[in-house]
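TA notes, week 10

Several of you asked for a full example with nothing omitted. So below is the full record: structure tokens for the whole chain, then the designed sequence directly under it. When grading your own attempts, check the secondary structure regions first.
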């Protein structure tokens, strides 16, 4: 889920056209390295040049009118460039919610320690739910900052869309240490039991599975019990499916045994 986190990749492919002359230069090719590596390198250089040009244009757009500024924000929602940070920070105070939301996403892509305090404030008090949702996602990229408690507060109190992204970000922030993982897992387990939205409950399962390796044995046991309870008692099929996928993917004999036992008892197909 988080993009977040998080969860897309881009794969470039290059094809080598074989020329008969290559055979005559086999020794030279071996000395120079794999021609495919050279082509991949050239492709990366070309991509890097294209990105650099986009970022250069984005920096100019950020300093122009409303439409150009939004175009520049789109650039830095996709690319990282430290030069953009001084231009992104003031946009968090813009009256236009679309600008604030886009600036928040851009600062998630380009984390800036100076933005943490204002992002936390926006998470709690921005009047626009889309901005708060963006902030809940963005703070997942600030795992070393004091954002655990603000995300927990949003998981407990905000609308469903914000709660959903807060749960994802808790997986990122909680993964920093065993202490944070335990705190985050405790809150996610509560939300898994009581949250009214199936999408939030599913995301809590995903986040808990991400934190599993950081947890102590007692918390792991509690997590597995919760997943089994979801499989046996949850009304929403999508949430049950998420629990089953989590149990299947956990690299742990306990989870495999619990799942196998449910199948053997005829409780699962």
């Amino acid at each position: 889920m988080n993009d977040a986190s998080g969860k897309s990749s881009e794969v470039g492919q290059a094809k080598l056209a074989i020329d008969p002359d290559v055979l005559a230069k086999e020794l030279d090719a071996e000395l120079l390295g794999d021609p495919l590596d050279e082509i991949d390198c050239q492709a990366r250089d070309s991509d890097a040049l294209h990105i650099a040009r986009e970022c250069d244009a984005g920096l100019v757009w950020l300093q122009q009118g409303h439409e150009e500024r939004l175009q520049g924000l789109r650039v830095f929602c996709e690319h990282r460039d430290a030069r953009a940070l001084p231009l992104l920070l003031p946009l968090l105070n813009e009256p236009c919610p679309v600008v604030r939301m886009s600036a928040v996403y851009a600062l998630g892509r380009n984390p800036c320690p100076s933005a943490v305090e204002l992002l936390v404030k926006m998470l709690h008090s921005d009047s626009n739910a889309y901005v708060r949702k963006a902030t809940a996602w963005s703070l997942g990229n600030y795992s070393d900052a004091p954002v655990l408690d603000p995300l927990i507060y949003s998981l407990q109190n905000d609308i469903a869309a914000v709660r959903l992204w807060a749960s994802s970000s808790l997986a990122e922030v909680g993964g920093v240490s065993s202490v944070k993982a335990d705190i985050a897992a405790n809150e996610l387990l509560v939300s898994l039991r009581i949250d009214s939205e199936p999408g939030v409950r599913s995301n809590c399962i995903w986040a808990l599975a991400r934190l599993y390796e950081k947890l102590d044995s007692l918390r792991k046991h509690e997590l597995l019990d919760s997943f089994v309870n979801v499989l046996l008692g949850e009304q929403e099929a999508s949430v049950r499916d998420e629990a089953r996928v989590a149990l299947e993917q956990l690299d742990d004999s306990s989870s495999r045994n619990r799942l196998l036992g449910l199948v053997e008892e005829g409780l699962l197909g």
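The radius of gyration is 23 Å. Use that as a sanity check on your answer.
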